[in-house]
Specification:
Layout: E1 14-19, H1 23-36, E2 39-43, E3 59-63, E4 70-72, E5 79-83, H2 88-96, E6 100-101, H3 114-120, H4 127-130, E7 137-143, E8 149-153, H5 165-169, E9 178-185, E10 187-188, E11 192-200, H6 203-215, E12 222-227, E13 249-257, H7 259-275, E14 281-283, H8 286-298, E15 307-311, H9 317-327, E16 332-336, E17 341-345, H10 354-368, E18 372-377, H11 386-390, H12 397-407
Parallel strand pairs: 1-3, 2-3
Antiparallel strand pairs: 4-5, 5-9, 6-10, 7-8, 7-9, 11-13, 11-14, 12-13, 12-16, 15-17, 15-18, 16-17
Helix pairs in contact: 9-10
Length: 425
């Protein structure tokens, strides 16, 4: 059963919404908006409307989840071309029928659309072993801020024609163009996937285990370090000999491949952990692994007064997790530890204010680790300044603003919600 139609928050500043069913309609609506200097908000499943700076300029919402057609699916070529409004769950089901997958794990897949996932550059646990959404987009069609359609890439993996619009638009939050169609390269579904878990009694132990995985003979698809009360109710997590408590931490490793490959990697991982004096570790049962995997994928979308994401060098993962716990001892944490991505769901909004928590405590740790911190969710919208939402001013804003000016000279597409601020408005 499909999820309900997109729900737009009452405070989201759309004066009207237009349901889009054809790419030509996108161009027509934006061209008209360009003439009227009217803001445009592309909306797919509505799962990421809280990302970025709050929308403040009244405008028109383009409801794009009516564009769900499969344009071309030459399964033997391991590619598919689809409209951007297709829901991730629907896409996964169609690919699974051919034994194939787009290995991008996103929360609320029954609502999230492919175009929205690409626009927000959403990636899940398997980015460590299987790559990010940028690695799978090989062709893209979009409409710029004047209402002019453009495209890049193509329908074959080795196509290199034109500018690399695929990578440029990925993660641009719909501020450079409204994505209407995408071509993806695919992967076969692995014969087997399992999780191996162990309890972690300190950040130093976690660091030792993560360093061991760097030298491991295994090839994990995901390396997840988790901590906090959000995980306590899940079966399949070893206790490590101590009673479950909010500060408990666990390391989970996902292994995929043929049955013999997975069996060997499970045994090898447990053997390597025993060599590091880890005695409480186990392979999860099929049911336990399924429940844990779902929790790992959905964690960023869980209810919380504040959800932050840090992106740092992988060697600083545990340092960043410890810093989050210093600000909120009861926060729940998930790290894609092999990539240095740490997501923190706070138990309460920082008592001394978001800006102080970020500027005085968290951003310095991230900056020292060659990274930054962004806000994934702040339902109260308190202190949603550019500095808080997007972290330190380390990006080449001048270049990014120049690109924005070329694609959207009147700043109509998701105006002022991304890292740059156009002078036009």
């Amino acid at each position: 059963m499909e999820a309900p139609l997109t729900e737009i928050p009452e405070d989201f500043p759309v004066d009207e919404t237009i349901e889009i069913n054809e790419a030509t309609e996108v161009a027509t609506v934006i061209s008209d908006a360009f003439q009227r200097d009217q803001a445009i908000y592309p909306i797919g499943g509505g799962t990421a409307l809280g990302w970025g700076l709050p929308a403040t300029r009244p405008g028109t919402g383009l409801l794009l989840n009516g564009m769900q057609r499969v344009i071309d699916y030459p399964a033997r070529d391991m590619t598919i071309t689809v409209e951007a409004g297709i829901r991730m769950q629907t896409l996964a089901a169609q690919l699974a029928a051919e034994g194939q997958q787009l290995p991008i794990d996103v929360p609320q897949a029954d609502r999230a659309t492919l175009g929205g996932v690409v626009a927000t550059n959403t990636n899940g646990p398997r980015r460590f072993g299987l790559g990010t959404v940028r690695d799978y987009v090989i062709g893209i069609h979009a409409v710029d801020g004047r209402g002019t359609p453009f495209q890049g890439g193509g329908r074959v993996v080795k196509n290199v024609a034109g500018y690399d619009f695929c990578k440029l638009l990925t993660g641009s939050m719909g501020t450079l163009g409204v994505i209407t169609q995408l071509t993806l390269k695919l992967k076969p579904i692995a014969e087997q996937r399992t999780l191996v878990a162990c309890a972690v009694d300190s950040w130093q132990t976690a660091e030792t285990l993560l360093e061991g995985l760097v030298q491991s003979q295994t090839t994990p698809t995901a390396v997840e370090l988790i901590s906090g009360s959000a995980w306590l109710s899940l079966a399949g997590l070893p206790t490590g000999g101590y009673a479950p408590r909010p500060g408990n931490s666990w390391l989970l490793v996902a292994l995929e491949g043929t049955q013999p490959e997975v069996r060997w990697m499970v045994d090898q991982t447990l053997q390597e952990w025993r060599a590091l004096s880890i005695t409480t570790a186990a392979e999860c049962t099929e049911d336990e692994a399924a429940a844990l995997w779902s929790a790992l994928v959905e964690f960023p979308a869980g209810e919380s007064p504040l959800v932050l994401q840090a992106s740092v060098v992988p060697s600083a993962t545990t340092r960043m997790m410890a810093a989050f716990q210093e600000v909120d001892a009861d926060c729940s944490l998930q790290a894609h530890a092999g990539n240095g991505t740490v997501i923190a769901r706070f138990s309460t909004f920082p008592s001394d204010g978001l800006s102080r928590a970020l500027v005085a405590h968290l951003q310095p740790v991230a900056t020292a680790a060659q990274g930054n911190i962004t806000i994934l969710s702040n339902p109260g919208k308190t202190e949603m300044t550019p500095q808080c939402v997007w972290g330190g001013n380390v990006a080449p804003f001048g270049l990014m603003s120049a690109v924005k000016q070329k694609f959207d000279p009147q700043n109509l597409l998701n105006p002022d919600r991304f890292v740059y601020r156009s002078t036009a408005s």
